[in-house]
Fold:
Amino acid sequence: MSTPVTAHARGGQVPRRRIPARWVAAALTAALLAAIGLSTHYRSAESVAASGARFDPAAFGARTYESEVVPAIRRRAVELPVLVKAVTTDKRVADRRYGVRQGNGPYNFAVKGTGRAGVAESGLMPVTVPGLPPGTRVSLQVGPAINGTALRDAAGIGFRRFRNQAEYAAAATALNNQLWRKLLKNLDPEHLNGKEISFVGAFNFLTPAVVTITPVSIKEMP
Structure:
C-alpha cells in the first residue's frame, strides 16, 4: 500500500494528493489482461477433437489430402517392379523396408510406375507394367466409387488422431472423396486406353498376383 504524499499547507493542515482515476483504470486493465494471458491454454486440433469438438470428415479431407497425404505418398513411392520383387523374395523384409502399417492391420505401400493403359471396367483401369512377373494384374482405381483405406494408411495417418473407429473410417472415405474431386472426376479413362501412362499411388498388398492401386497421380506420357 502506497504512503500518501504530503506537503505543508497553511493552518498546519496536510492535504492528501489524489491519484487520478484514469491511472487506476489503466492499472486494473493491465492486471486483467495479464491474468487472461496466464490462464489461456492453446490446444492442437487433435486435443480439440479429444475434448468433444465434432469431427467434420469433409473438412479433414480438404485440409489433409493435398497438404499431407499426396506429399507423403509421393515421398515414399517405390517403383512397382522393385516392390513386387522384394515382396516375393522376402515379404517380412519388404514390409519393414517399404511398408506402412496401422496397428495390427496389413501393410500398405506407396508405389510409382509406368505402363500401357487398357480398357477401364467397373471402376478399374488395367495397366500393363513391364518388369513384373508373368500373370501379375495391375489396376488403377478410376471411380466414381473409390474403395479401401490405402490413402489414409499409406500416408501414415494413424488411429490416435481420432476418437473412435467411426471417425477413423470416415477420414478414409473423405480422402477418397478428395481424390475423386481433385483427380479422377476430370480423368477420361477411355482417352487413355492404349496409351503409355505414369502413375503414383498406394495399395494394400494382399497377393503379388493382384495389385489394385489407389492413385494420386495419373499422367499420359509424351
User: Anything to note?
Assistant: The CA atoms of residues 19 and 25 lie 11 Å apart. Confidence is low (pLDDT under 50) at residues 2-15, 24-45.
